[in-house]
Amino acid sequence: MAYFHELSSRVSFQEARLACESEGGALLSLENEAEQKLIESMLQNLTKPGTGISDGDFWIGLWRNGEGQIPGACPDLYQWSDGSSSQYRNWYTDEPSCGSEKCVVMYHQPTANPGLGGPYLYQWNDDRCNMKHNYICKYEPEINPTSPVEKTYFTNQPGDTPQNVVVTEAGIIPNLIYVVIPTIPLLLLILVAFGTCCFQMLHKSKGRTKTSPTQSTLWISKSTRKESGMEV
Known about the structure:
The chain contains 4 helices and 9 strands, in the order αβαββββββββαα. By secondary structure, it is of the alpha+beta class.
């Protein structure tokens, strides 16, 4: 969901479409009422009193090109920008009005007075494609080629809306790899230090001279000593 407080930051239908596609997604398409209710629950955080959130509709991926239009067939000309064939619709009363309005928004006007169809919340309305709104992108689930185990958890944080959070567990082997790889430099350093220590000890042991038990340690002078008062 791209929600902008500043009106100047909001975008046209085409800009919203390109923004979603640049990130590998598409403007929101809705397949059924269950998906509609999911989006409504996500938008409810924006409608809570005291949050300072202003009104702002959201572009979804429904639009029509207006070519070959037959009188009275306008509602049937709308299509999803992501190629979805879903026929699910949630129009506000008396919508679509057609004419020059060819792109569709999901109402989000919590401060507006209710109209004939009730509050201007979550129902759909066709609008001019160059109007500036927020937008909602939809993405395909990421597929991991190693087929990891996926477990579904529910968020219980204050203010969170009930929604699934998918946590991927890839098994113990990848986790061991992440632990072992960073320790390789340390292991190499220890190995080098150990080898250096062994080499120095071996070098010192070779340089030592052992004394034979039968070898005399007495020093014998080569010069002739003269004893005073003695004759040979």
